[in-house]
Predict the structure.
Amino acid sequence: MKRITTVIPLMVCLAFSMMLLSCVEEEKLTEPETVSGYTIRGSVQYWGDESAASGVLVGLSGISKSETCITDSTGSFSFTDVEDGTFTIFPIETAEIDCYFIPESKKVTVREEDITVFRFSALKYPKLILRNNSPKKIIGVRVSAYARPQVWSDNLLSGDLAPFSGSEMIRLKSGTKLMEVTCVEDTLQFAEWIKVSYIAPGDTLVFPLSSLIKVANNSSKTVVRVTIDRDFSFPGLSMSLASGNLLTKLLDPGSVSENIYYWPGLSDVTLNYLENSDSNFVIIQNIDITPGDTVYIPFEI
C-alpha cells in the first residue's frame, strides 16, 4: 500500500503539467492575426468636366513593392499591404485610354499610416493634321512647348510633306506650341518658325502651314520689289526674319501679283517702286498674317 500511495501524486503532477501545456498551445493557436502594411489610395479624373476616368492602368514602384492596378467606375485606385518607404505612383498611357496625365507621377512616403494621393488629371490627346498649302516640300516639323528653354520633339512627320498635301493624323500634347518647319525649295533647305495658338485637350485641328499674299498695284507706279520682315517672339527666342524679293516679275500699274506663299505671323511689308527712274519704297506695318489666310495688300500712292 505504501508503494501505491507514492505513485499517485506523481501521476497527478504529470496530468496537471500536460493540461497547462495544452492550454498554452491552444492560446497560441487562437491569437488574432495582425494585418501588415498600409494602403495608398488615389483617383484619376478627366480634365475639364472632372468626370471619373475608369479603366486607367496605374503603377506603383518602390524598393519593397512594385505592382499595377486599374481605376474603378469612380476613377479610384488603391494599393494595399504597402510597407513603410518611398514609392512612385504613376498612371500609364495605353491605346485604350489615349490620354496623357498631369502630373506624370507622384512620390509618396509611407510612415505607419495610410496615404491618400491627390488626384491625377487625364487629358485627351489633341489630334492635328498639318496642311502644306504651298509649292514648297516640307521635310520636317518639330514642336516645342511655350516654355524656356525650348525642348524640341522628334520629327512629327513620318515622311516628306509634298506641296499642297496634308499629313497623317499627328498626336501631341495640348498647349501653345512653337513649330519649326524645315523646307526644301529648289535646292535650298531652310527652317521657319510658326507660333501655334493654344490647342485644347481633345481638339481635332487642321493647321495650314503657309499663307497666301497677293499685292494689288492700284497706282501708276511700277512695283519692282516686295519684301516681308516678320518679327518673331517666343520665350527664349526672339528674332526678325527678313525675306528676299518675293516678286518673280515687275508688277505693272493696275495689275495683281502672282501668288506669294509666306509664313504666318505679324509682319511689315515693304514695297519698292520706280518713280522717274528713282527707287522709292512704302512700308505697310503690322499686318497680321494668319495661317491659311489669303491677304490682299493694296499698293496705292
Residues 2-29 form the longest helix (28 residues). The helical segments are 2-29. Residues 127-208 form a domain with the Immunoglobulin-like fold (CATH 2.60.40).
